[in-house]
């Protein structure tokens, strides 16, 4: 069966659906996935590195290594 023929058949089936077709089927429940625990070994360090440049207080820029 060619793709065009399959699309035509699918379109014909979808256009013949009624509201009753949607009411009779119950939605399937989605599987419950276990929640991931947060990794606590990595902790954010808050640094207060401020520099005054041309009279304006700015954060210090760091170079990438």
Automatic annotation (TrEMBL):
Residues 20-43 are annotated as: Disordered. Residues 34-43 have a biased composition (Basic residues). This is Uncharacterized protein. It comes from Phytophthora nicotianae P10297. The lineage of its organism: Eukaryota, Sar, Stramenopiles, Oomycota, Peronosporomycetes.
């Amino acid at each position: 069966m060619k793709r065009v023929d399959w699309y035509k058949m699918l379109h014909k089936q979808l256009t013949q659906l009624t509201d009753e077709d949607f009411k009779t089927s119950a939605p399937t429940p989605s599987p419950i996935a276990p929640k991931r625990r947060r990794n606590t070994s990595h902790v954010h360090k808050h640094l207060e590195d401020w520099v005054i440049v041309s009279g304006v207080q700015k954060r210090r820029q760091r170079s990438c290594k």
